[in-house]
Every structure is written in C-alpha cells, then in structure tokens.
Design a protein that fits this description.
Layout: E1 13-16, H1 19-24, E2 33-36, H2 44-51, E3 57-59, H3 62-67, H4 72-90, E4 96-100, E5 129-136, E6 141-143, E7 148-150, H5 155-165, H6 171-179, E8 186-188, E9 195-196, E10 202-206, E11 218-220, E12 231-235
Parallel strand pairs: 1-2
Antiparallel strand pairs: 2-10, 3-4, 4-12, 5-10, 5-12, 6-9, 6-11, 7-8
Helix pairs in contact: 2-4
Length: about 240
C-alpha cells in the first residue's frame, strides 16, 4: 500500500494514528483534511479480478463480497473493506463501497464541468464531513486552497455563466450558481501540485457548510483512461 506523506509546508493536512483519533479530531487552524495512514494486508487486485467486467459505478455489498472465490490474500483484502464499513456504520455514518470503472462526464464544452473529475468541494447544510478510502486503482487527489481558483471567479468563465443565466450579476445569479453547484468547482492555479490521497488510508475531509471554521477540502476523482484498473472506493 502506498504511504501518504504530506508535502512540506502543507498546513491543511494532518495525519493521525487511529480511527478514534480520526473521528475525534477537529478541523482547526486551517486543517481541512485528516488522514489515518495505514498499510493494509491483502490482495485488492484479486478482489477486482473476481468481480469481473463492469461499467460505471458498481455498488458492492457484504453478500457479494462474501460470495467471491478468493485466496487467503484476497479474503484479507475483503475483510479490511468490511471492517471499514463496520467502523463507519458504528459511527452513525452510511458508507458505500463501490467498484468504479468510470464516472459520468459532463460535456467538455460546459463553462464549468460539475462531474467528480473536476476539482470540487462537497457541501452540506449542517456540520458534516466526507470520509473516503481508495483501496485499489488510482487514488483520489487533493488541492490546497491556496493553489485553487473558484471557477466562477474567473472573468471569462463568469461571463459565460452570465450568458447561460440570461440575466445580471445579482443575487439571482448567485443563487443560480449555488443551485447548479458551479460555485463548488475549482481550477488549479499555474504551478499547483495536487497531492494523492494514496491507497489504504482513511480520510476525513471538511465540507462547505454554514459556520465551518475552515475552508472545505478541494479534491477530485483521479483522471483515468483506457487500460487503467477499476477503483475500489469507500465513501460516506
């Protein structure tokens, strides 16, 4: 499993040593991404192979995973994922485990693509956080807030969105941006260096909610292409 090492001068990311610490830690002092770094046993590639071909996002439940004909190494990987599901459920969360072959993409001509391949922040109306772990395949990516520009703040993009809206740059336009989730998407600034979340590590990242003490964690699903392996992803 790939280790995650925060880059020097990366004050928005903090590592912890246990699930209890991950669950209890606060987003403070600008930190908006908490990572429980782990080296997990088992052969996750075997699990993917046994799942067979697929397309899009394939939900995985306990019964399907238990039905797979796995070697001891494959069973160890399966048990790690099931243990994480149990941990999050015991914490009153509703995690999903998916085998991801691809996500739907927005039209490339859109002024602001809003698919998960775009750098974005999650949002909620009450205090909340996103939990995720990539077990196999390309890992999720993060972007420092200082290295990002909200797409709606780019003059050319804002002009295109005003044209789509068909009105003035007023309160109604700002409501339109929120309703379409355009205000949650970001572009990387020149020279920005996204960081990989790595494999096997369980993350808890800040979302955009009223009253949050820190800015939301900007992240995305990793760009993938033909021949890339499917991802095993836990998210809540």
């Amino acid at each position: 499993m790939a280790a995650f090492h925060p880059t020097p001068g990366h004050p928005r990311t903090r590592t912890v040593g246990s699930f209890a610490e991950l669950a209890a830690a606060s987003f403070t002092a600008g930190v908006n991404a908490l990572c429980w770094t782990r080296t997990l046993p088992g052969d996750f590639a075997e699990v993917v192979t046994r799942l067979g071909d697929g397309e899009g996002v394939v939900p995985l439940d306990e019964s399907r995973l238990h039905a797979l004909p796995l070697t001891p190494a494959g069973r160890a990987a399966r048990d790690c994922m099931l243990a994480d599901l149990a941990l999050l459920r015991a914490h009153d969360l509703t995690p999903e485990l998916n085998c991801i072959h691809s996500y739907a993409r927005d039209d490339a001509r859109a002024a602001v693509p809003t698919d998960v391949y775009s750098f974005h922040a999650d949002s909620a109306t009450v205090e909340s956080a996103t939990w995720l772990c990539t077990y196999h395949g390309p890992a999720s990516e993060g972007l420092r807030n200082e290295d990002a520009l909200r797409r709606v703040e780019d003059p050319a993009t804002r002009t295109a969105l005003l044209r789509e809206y068909g009105g003035a740059d007023d309160a109604g336009f700002r409501a339109f941006l929120r309703d379409q989730h355009y205000d949650l998407h970001y572009a990387a600034l020149p020279g920005a260096r996204p960081y990989a979340f790595g494999l096997g590590h369980l993350w808890r990242i800040a979302v955009d909610w009223p009253g949050s003490a820190v800015p939301p964690c900007i992240h995305r699903a990793p760009p993938t292409g033909p021949g890339d392996p499917p991802r095993l992803l836990l998210i809540s």
